[in-house]
Amino acid sequence: MDYLLNEEQNMIRDMVAKFSENEIKPVASENEKNGRFPADIIEKAGELGLMGITYPEEYGGAGMDNISYMVAIEEISKHCASTGVIISAHSSLAIDPIYRFGTEEQKKKYMPDLCSGKHIGCHALTEPGAGSDAGSLKTTAKLDGDNWVLNGTKHFITNGKEAEITIVFALTDPSKGTRGISAFIVEKDTPGFTIGKLEHKLGIKASSTAELIFEDCKIPKENLLGEVGKGFKVALVTLDGGRLGIASQALGISKAAITDAIAYAKEREQFGAPIAKLQAIQWMIADMWTEYEAAWLLVYRASLMKDKGLRYSKEAAMAKLKASEVSMFCASKAIQVFGGYGYTDEFNVERYLRDAKITEIYEGTSEIMRLVIASNLLA
Known about the structure:
Elements: H1 7-34, H2 39-47, H3 66-79, H4 81-101, H5 104-116, E1 121-124, E2 140-144, E3 147-158, E4 165-171, E5 181-187, E6 193-198, E7 209-220, E8 224-225, H6 231-267, E9 269-270, E10 273-274, H7 279-307, H8 313-338, H9 349-359, H10 366-378
Parallel strand pairs: 1-4
Antiparallel strand pairs: 2-3, 3-7, 4-5, 5-8, 6-7, 9-10
Helix pairs in contact: 1-3, 3-4, 3-6, 4-5, 4-6, 6-7, 6-8, 6-9, 7-8, 8-9, 8-10
């Protein structure tokens, strides 16, 4: 669908595709098996402007649009979904709220190092008892003189181990429910802030998923992000953009599954001919590609709406829902094309399936996406 991309967007896609092929693909499987965070790749991505691709140059970003971001995350995730989510969570969930809700001082202080990739960021909303029901979080922040004091535990935080900057959501007035939630910028070495348990996961193993613990963690009162009591709005607006990143990651997984399935079908012979000659295989590949393009168009539309400054919450939910479910479909069908070999780690298709599953869960489960879509339609 090159015709839907302008010259600059096609150039970004081609540049990132080359980077992903040359730098990410050769080490992706080993990084995944060893749970190794790809620090060297992230550094190179920063040098290419990929860590802050959509943010203004005055804050250290590359000044590109959200469609360029979409195709970049897709091309990266085609070879390594872990690297895709590391960059997506960093850009969409950590930099974006600072850019949208931060003061000028906060933007100048934090964004340049984040956009360059010198610092990694993360987004700490989820808690052990607050997942889909994010409004039920228990972490508190109390003002004590010139400091906010944070207490609580965050759970399932992507980039949590490596992040230098964390966007933390906490109750500043528990009596007000979601209207009593505020957002804060917390630096890694702040006393009282520690990294807890690291999760051992089904997939995306080269990306850390950590528990963050706050015990009388004091941060300056100027590290409040946005207004007191408006943190839930910060979270919801941020998650709309984050869902486009995950949808793009899912597209990359789908594209990888289709590409590998086609190549294998042309090479593998059964009954005296390549299995690509079998109608059953042809139909699977036809269905995979049709579903992929449908998902791609939804992600493209939502990204275009964001670029135009339009409200895109429903469209982001639709894109994330479709792309994540298509990634599972394509990965599963790819294993079917490979047959018994697809169930082994000799080929990458089993990794695609493991990586695809999480796209239906984080940044809002498929069930929550359906609720978001329905609430917009029935309002």
